[in-house]
């Protein structure tokens, strides 16, 4: 469960040049588990067990072009899983052979199991991604999509050896309640079907559920393909969807193209007056004690530096820019002091280097909006993908989130922030913050040592 803490109530533009970004003493990173393929979300179960989502490396099944890979094909297989490490260091993979999509033959840019979170009763909820046109997912969505226009660049492509017309990945792009002992999945919401019939952002018909947060009896899902944020009742009876607006910038940010080459349709919008509208590519989400959802964005092609925003979505469902001036946000969380922790996949454009080893970073935004870099670019958070705070008060991050067996979870040592037990109300949380969470609650200590999965 993403941590809740002191309210951040003002809608504020805060550019680094104005507010400034200070630096903390360099933290050290301790590897907890490694060898994870296309590592994504990290979270903790009620008993302190660490879980990391492993989308997998796809396989030799059918393929589809994906905006996530600049329309290079990603192909289907059964290579995903959920990695778990108990507090005493025992590690294993569960939900093995889960459906997966990834580039071939590299196995990069996997989509599959994206995140797992738990409610206050200890029930587990699983989010799966997709990264493409949802009508290609299975026969049901193919039939559903026949009633709606499909952009040609999103149609499925086929390896010569597989004549089927779909990816045969019906478990992707969904939210499930999951029994981690039996592997039984109970579908709560199908993002593929919703995207086809509703297309919340009004742009290209793409879905890629990326991040999951549980708060009370609601699930909050951020969709990086559909550029939308969902609030879904855990019993599946109600949902609310908010489209995240595109970012308008000068067309001068576009890189030069070879003569005769054009950008794929749907990748970026060319506007009058020398401007372009970039896809939001919404990623991490976290709930504040004011009940609002805070959403970070990666920012789409051409992935400019310093242009990623954080939105606040209140009960009215309207997105407001809360902060600006970040680069490639992949996840967010709050600590008990009201600090917003912002994880950046990279501090530079992904077009500027090997996407597997880009210089990621961790930034703390204090309640007064002062920014402090806790882990700077080049200090070990390459291609950082997910963040959570353990019951030991320490920060855990997935890094090297692209590529087969490259990913790991690291603990950020030297920075401790106590985690707050979820109160019954905002008033209770504010009172708890006032007296100090350390005095209010004993914290279990994680005894995780480095674990190599076999």
Task: Provide a brief overview of the structure.
This protein is 7% helix and 39% strand. It has 454 residues and is mostly beta strands.
Describe this structure in words.
The chain has helices at about 15-20, 140-145, 190-200, 425-435, 435-440; strands at about 20-25, 30-35, 40-45, 50-55, 65, 75-85, 90-105, 115-120, 125-130, 175-180, 185-190, 210-215, 220-225, 230-235, 240-245, 245-250, 270, 275-280, 280-285, 295, 310-315, 320-325, 330-335, 340-345, 360-365, 370-375, 385-390, 395-400, 405-415, 450. It is mainly β. A five-stranded mixed β-sheet has the order 1-26-25-24-23. A hairpin with a 5-residue loop joins strand 25 and strand 26.
Question: What's the structural blueprint in terms of helices and strands?
Answer:
Blueprint: H1 16-19, E1 21-23, E2 28-36, E3 42-44, E4 50-54, E5 63-65, E6 73-85, E7 91-103, E8 113-118, E9 124-128, H2 139-145, E10 174-178, E11 185-190, H3 191-198, E12 209-215, E13 218-223, E14 228-233, E15 239-243, E16 247-250, E17 268-271, E18 275-278, E19 282-287, E20 293-297, E21 308-313, E22 319-326, E23 329-334, E24 340-344, E25 361-365, E26 371-375, E27 386-389, E28 394-399, E29 407-416, H4 426-435, H5 437-440, E30 451-452
Parallel strand pairs: 1-26, 2-30
Antiparallel strand pairs: 2-29, 3-4, 4-6, 5-6, 6-7, 8-9, 9-10, 10-11, 12-13, 13-14, 14-15, 16-18, 17-18, 19-20, 20-21, 21-22, 23-24, 24-25, 25-26, 27-28, 28-29
